[in-house]
Design goal:
Layout: H1 9-14, H2 24-37, H3 41-50, H4 54-63, H5 67-80, H6 84-94, H7 98-106, H8 112-124, H9 128-141, H10 146-158, H11 162-175, H12 180-192, H13 196-209, H14 214-226, H15 230-246, H16 258-277, H17 283-303, H18 308-321, H19 324-339, H20 348-368, H21 371-395, H22 400-418
Helix pairs in contact: 2-3, 3-4, 4-5, 4-6, 5-6, 6-7, 7-8, 8-9, 9-10, 10-11, 11-12, 12-13, 13-14, 14-15, 15-16, 15-17, 16-17, 16-18, 17-18, 18-19, 19-20, 20-21, 20-22, 21-22
Length: 419
């Protein structure tokens, strides 16, 4: 046999006590910790019992669903030595809040976990004021627990304690800078305080870490409208549309609000008009914004055939920038979209919108002045007038739009007679 090239045993034994070797109980604890992290909690509890780490024993048996055994161990340990943690564990196991109060008393109000457990109890019971005060006590003792700051902040928002809520979520993002929900709540507080300039960077931070939250995109949309950042408002709209396509209807993502899209259109047109009066360098960015607005409206119109306001906005956009040849096309699309809505002639808002659209179409065709254009206008007005009158006969009331349509028809016929 080949002899090993190593020191003899007697020489090695001389250095045995120089080795920093962990004691047996530390090795057992390490094995138990690993078992617990893997979910093998019953085996972990047995190892913790061997080295008498009773707090961990109770936690493991509770996780294993052996609450009765855990309670028995707790009561035995309390009979030997009262500790705040054991009183709190007994409160968790029995659901009796007097044990949390006892833990607070024994610790001389220095045991944060008891305050947290008491706060959670009151939160579950919808007693937000008591939950708020107990979380505040806990955070005074343990200020470096981000998830407790977050819960405290949500309670403050419900109680409309906005300064405390802002302090709470500011602590969360200071300790956990990648917590997207906390950034979103910081922004929500700024928005509540009518401070969109402060909300804007917080929303960007939130979206940096989670771009799939439609509520944050909606908040950014509102904020960008307040700050007149129309390009970013368009980006927010497109992101919401992307999320609506990617997620199921059950996720409850609402469609884009008409008032928001109209605000983008109006704002972009206004900036374009202002840039025309200013230096030429500012004209090109405004023109690019209008192209993005147009693309957004086209996308919304393609995704739904029941939103006439989209085509109305497109007609307005082209009218304002001088693209007159497209205005009539989009007004006709709006007209067809309203007409496709069943019962539009009985709906007050749709009836008024139809009258406005027809009036605009007739006005454009009258400007053209050709016999063909006027004949088309006469046919259009007659068809709408008849439909409204037929609906009015059933309802036994004559809408005021009928009178306006009669005036339009008379005007068109007079112009035709003049030709």
């Amino acid at each position: 046999a080949i002899e090993e090239d190593s020191a003899p045993i007697q020489d090695r034994l001389k250095n045995l006590h120089s080795i920093v070797y962990p004691p047996r109980w530390a090795m057992i604890q390490e094995i138990a910790d690993r078992y617990e992290s893997l979910g093998i909690v019953t085996s972990a509890a047995e190892l913790y019992t061997e080295i008498e780490l009773w707090d961990d024993v109770v936690d493991c048996y509770t996780r294993a669903g052996k609450r009765q055994k855990a309670e028995q161990i707790v009561r035995v340990q309390l009979s030997k030595n009262e500790t705040p943690r054991m009183w709190t564990a007994l409160g968790d196991l029995t659901g009796d809040i007097q044990y949390y109060d006892k833990a607070i008393e024994v610790s001389n109000r220095r045991f944060a976990r008891a305050f947290i457990a008491l706060a959670q109890h009151y939160f579950d019971k919808k007693d937000l004021r008591k939950a708020w005060s107990n979380y505040e006590e806990a955070l005074h003792l343990r200020p470096l627990v981000p998830h407790i700051w977050f819960r405290y902040g949500t309670i403050c928002m419900q109680l409309e304690e906005w300064d405390s809520a802002f302090r709470a979520f500011s602590e969360v993002v200071r300790q956990e800078p990648e917590e997207a929900e906390a950034w979103a709540n910081v922004a929500a507080i700024h928005m509540h305080n009518k401070n969109p300039a402060e909300a804007y960077p917080a929303l960007n931070e939130s979206l940096k870490y989670n771009r799939a939250n439609w509520r944050v995109w909606t908040s950014k949309l509102y904020t960008c409208l307040d700050l007149e950042k129309y390009d970013e408002a368009i980006q927010a709209c497109n992101s919401i549309l992307d999320l609506r396509l990617a997620k199921a209807q059950s996720d409850g993502i609402p469609p884009l609000e008409e008032k928001c899209v109209r605000a983008i259109v109006g704002g972009a047109v206004r900036k374009f008009e202002d840039s025309r009066k200013g230096p030429s360098a500012s004209l090109e960015p405004s023109r690019r914004t209008l192209l993005r607005v147009h693309a957004l409206l086209d996308r919304i119109g393609a995704s739904s055939t029941t939103m006439p306001w989209v085509f109305e906005s497109l007609a307005y956009l082209h009218d304002q920038v001088g693209a007159d040849e497209k205005v009539l096309e989009y007004l006709m699309q709006e007209y067809r979209t309203i007409q496709a809505v069943q019962g539009w002639e009985c709906d007050l808002d749709l009836r008024k919108k139809m009258y406005d659209v027809v009036s605009h179409i007739v006005s454009i065709r009258q400007q053209e002045g050709s016999r063909d254009s006027l004949a088309k206008s006469r046919m259009l007005v007659r068809a709408i007038k008849k439909k409204v009158e037929d609906a009015a006969l059933d309802a036994q009331t004559i809408p005021k739009e009928v009178e306006g349509l009669e005036e339009l028809l008379t005007d068109v016929e007079n112009k035709l007679n003049e030709l």
